[in-house]
Design goal:
With 473 residues, the chain is α/β, with parallel strands linked by helices. The chain is 36% helix and 14% strand.
Amino acid sequence: MAEPWATLGIDLLVEPTGPGLRRGLTDALREAVRSGRLAPGTRLPSSRALAADLGIARNTVADAYADLVAEGWLTARQGSGTRVAMGASATPLRQWGRELVPPSGTAPHPRVPTRPAYDLRPGSPDLASFPRTEWLKAARRALTAAPYQALDYGDPRGRPELRAALAGYLSRARGVRADPERIVVCAGFAHGLKLLGTVLRARGARTVAVESYGLDAHTRILAGCGLDTDPLPFDRRGTDPGGSPAADALLLTPAHQFPMGVPLHRDRRTAVVDWARRTGGLVLEDDYDGEFRYDRQPVGALQGLDPDRVVYLGTASKSLAPGLRLAWMVLPPGLAEEVTAAKGGVDMCGALDQLTLAEFLTSGAYDRHVRATRLRYRRRRDALVAAVAARAPEARVTGIAAGLHVLLRLPPGTEQSVVQAAHWRGLALHGLARYSNPVAPVEPVDALVVGYGTPPDHAWSGALDALCAVLPG
């Protein structure tokens, strides 16, 4: 009995054209390589499999492959099959038995930018420390226990298992008053902020007050929802929430201000909640790295002071990995339904990842991972502080009590030159100016925002050497 075509090899879309099957197939394959549709290194189906797919003789495919190997478009090796030649592109190595020479005046291929030797940009954890083994164990347990209905479209708020696990964890570890019915899972913080911006605008809001220092991507998201953004004053006690009385909502990072690195002063935490109660406004609390603190008691979530006026936003991007695209919102009563409707009635996050994270939380693996990485990051921070003090005394490190970055204050007028020198040395580094709102009521400060989460352990000492080499003094 002939073997069905559907069981053979790998798929390849190719349509022989022109007179004769062999020539038509050869021309079609050559054009697929020349146009870049088949990239160098791509493995092709066996001659038997492709012949079955196309309904032609196997020898016809084998002869076409042989022609293209002779021309230099393909390579064929025992045990590794037939592949597109690594040098194959718009200009083949050989064609019809002769070398091809690029026409005179052809511009060389543009140089592809190389990755930096060291990366000290803030915003990312050490991806090499992602707990692969424990995550796989959690995924296996979660998938084994999951009912088949869990693989359906599901509740747009997110999997109930994850919302229940988050409610318990956030209450215990962050002081959040969370009801699983008012938790909405989203595909990252930016997705959550966009949903909130959409709902606020539909409610008639016009202005969201933002911090003077922060990510411009957040203001762009809010602007895309039709909302104006008004920067708040900033001083040694953090953001001053009384600086924009006409705002309909405030977007804050109260536990660890990004990028200045200070917590919101306790008096101002109270003032924020008072403002929300008095005006009917909402506070959007970005708790982006609340688990990582080193020299102080944990700062509880602002949401615990008034769950009816504060929206809590958390994410797995800093504690685990941004590639998971998992975040969550704990919403006041009534707002959960509006945010869920804004999602379009569809759960935007994969059910399997949600089930795995739920198992990771309830099994205690998440707590163990956070504690282990907290210790690793603290050692890195200590090494950074010591190296700067010993080798660059003109720089001053601040904002070190928590988080995954420090603020490295520089002598006036040196920020731009240091960032440029770092670029020349292959060190990815951001200055504070990158995170300053251009219309904010603050004095300019020369500083670097140095992330110590990104480099893997083996690269940390080299990254420190590269940093100290570009600092003044």
